[in-house]
Specification:
alpha+beta, Nucleoside Triphosphate Pyrophosphohydrolase, seven-stranded mixed sheet, 37% strand
């Protein structure tokens, strides 16, 4: 992980990283916490198929991913699901039809900084398969994949690999 060196309070090159979640400055007693960030991941499902996206950016460019993203301040996880599905897929969803499934810790590495996340998994069932017209900024393609053919190694994030290992057993 890229380590911050300079204290944002006193400006001295004295910032100390505890190796887990806290930077502190022994000169001015400043503390900065790297708290866990909330993120959502939505399993869009039609019968025994799921709708996945392919990442068009790092981290994990080219890998399969669930639609979703980071929770914004003053936003519920369900509101995040609705916003992210619309931003990524132009899909307008009724959040009352989202089904919360589980949460898993994850490590999201971006530009040499490790972000610890808590990934909240939801399921959204659709009555028929659809396709979307992508803008190709974050996503390079979307695919419907039968659950039984999903290769966990094609997935971008460890939390999703762990999630689908259990999800496939129970569906």
């Amino acid at each position: 992980m890229k380590i911050l060196k300079y204290c944002p309070s006193c400006g001295k090159e004295s910032l100390h990283w505890d190796g887990e979640k806290k930077w502190s400055c022994p000169n001015c007693q400043f503390s900065l916490y790297n708290n866990v960030a909330g993120a959502v991941a939505v399993v869009i499902r039609h019968e025994d198929e799921i709708y996945l996206t392919r990442r068009n950016r790092d981290p994990k460019k080219g890998k399969l991913d669930l639609a979703g993203g980071f929770v914004d301040p003053k936003e519920s996880a369900e509101e995040t699901c609705r916003r992210e599905l619309f931003e990524e897929l132009k899909l307008d969803v009724d959040i009352s039809n989202l089904k919360y499934l589980t949460s898993l810790p994850n490590l999201y590495q971006y530009k040499e900084i490790d972000y610890n996340t808590i990934d909240l998994f939801y399921e959204y069932s659709v009555s028929e398969k659809f396709e979307v017209d992508l803008e190709l900024s974050e996503i390079s393609e979307t695919v419907w994949i039968p659950l039984e053919t999903l290769d966990l190694e094609d997935l971008a994030f460890d939390s999703q690999k762990k999630f689908f290992k259990e999800y496939i057993k129970n569906k």
